[in-house]
Write a sequence for this structure.
DNA sequence: TTCTTCATGTAATTAGTTACATGATTGA
DNA sequence: TCAATCATGTAACTAATTACATGAAGAA
């Protein structure tokens, strides 16, 4: 028992350790490559959290000598695996989104239409960039390469969501760029057709209809 | 000049004040109703940030008496409007996602298939609930009601994204539930067909193809 | 008139980020 | 052999959350 309780971030690290042992630096690499898209945390956190896992008896640390300095490699303990399985059994929180560009779109009537449209273009570029990176990894797996082939099913489920997420950002940006194409320079003077409001409401209603289905 | 620089959260509040003056409690209501979906922050933050805006000369505070206690109402200053417009001119960050349920899916090979599937069901229920709320507001606007009719174009752009986001969570959960339907109890023994990997890769490649288009 | 919920904050705590420091490795 | 980059961390700081406290308003 030690130093605060376990957070979702703790379990994110613990989950990585369940795959194989990692040095702290390798953990930061994984954060950039995969985990960062669903649970982003600063690298320095990854030097801190594993210590908490060790204090709870869920992981072990081994000091590995590289040249004159030491590197710490962490691995999961049997207790750690049990704790992870228990955590996986609990419901978990829905998605939480932080989207600064969308915030700027929301308040765009206080700025200019060119500013709004360049924000939309930036969002679209973001989606393209993410998708490029993801497509490259996908092709790598299709070619028979790619790390952790045993975990492909879990990666497919996860990447299946992320790619759709990137696609929705892209599609939305295109749609919004088209919609604002003929707006006056002052966006507070713009109007949208009733059919557009109907269309976006239908999207929500289609999903809401699943309530009955269960 | 005072007490730290302005953050995105500061501008989120400033944007609300540009619409009309609000008491702090009203600001927390707006956080629940609209802003919380794209820039979620705890209520207590909303009691603190406006003070920073005042210290920077971007907002004014008026103490309003209600019974024996006082309520603070904040309003934007001309300098505040200019600062907001400048901020809207800057590019802004792409979306950042925190998705605990997806994290559990990612590590689901360390648990059981029933646990995985109940996580998927929870994600789907989340999407349905959000969409219900959003659809109700959409119908309200279609009936001619709804607050801030002058800002409907900006709300359409914003809600247009959010509804598609809810829909993508829903569609993904259904897809994943179908895909895992015949999985063995131990999900680390599951496999997925090559066509599925091809399909999710095509999604990313379709978006990446926009690079050429610009 | 008492209970509950709405309303208005402050204080304590924690999670997370930015900045810094420095050794190891590689390649020009 | 020097510069650049990779690797490994710590410390200071800030943003944000949770917990708490209490007055006002309305319902039973």
């Amino acid at each position: 028992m030690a130093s605060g309780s376990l957070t979702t971030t703790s379990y994110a690290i613990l989950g990585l350790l369940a795959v194989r042992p990692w040095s702290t630096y390798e953990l930061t690499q994984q954060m950039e490559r995969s985990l960062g898209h669903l649970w982003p945390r600063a690298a320095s956190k990854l030097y801190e959290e594993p210590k908490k896992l060790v204090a709870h008896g869920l992981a072990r640390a081994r000091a590995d000598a590289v040249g004159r300095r030491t590197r710490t490699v962490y691995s999961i303990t049997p207790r750690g695996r049990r704790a992870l399985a228990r955590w996986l059994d609990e419901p978990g929180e829905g998605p939480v989104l932080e989207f600064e560009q969308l915030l700027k779109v929301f308040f765009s009537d206080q700025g200019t239409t060119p500013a709004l449209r360049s924000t939309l273009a930036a969002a679209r570029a973001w989606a393209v960039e993410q998708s490029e990176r993801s497509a490259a990894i996908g092709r790598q797996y299709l070619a028979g390469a790619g790390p952790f082939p045993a975990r492909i099913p879990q990666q497919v489920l996860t990447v299946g969501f992320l790619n759709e997420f990137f696609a929705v950002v892209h599609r939305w940006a295109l749609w919004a760029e088209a919609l604002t194409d003929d707006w006056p320079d002052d966006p507070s003077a713009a109007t949208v057709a009733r059919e557009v409001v109907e269309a976006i409401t239908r999207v929500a209603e289609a999903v809401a209809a699943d309530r009955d289905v269960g």
Notes: Chain A is about 60% helix and 10% strand. Chain A has a mean pLDDT of 93. The two ends of chain A are 41 Å apart (CA to CA). Residues 4, 7, 9, 41-45, 48, 66-69 of chain A lie near DNA strand C (CB under 10 Å from a C1').
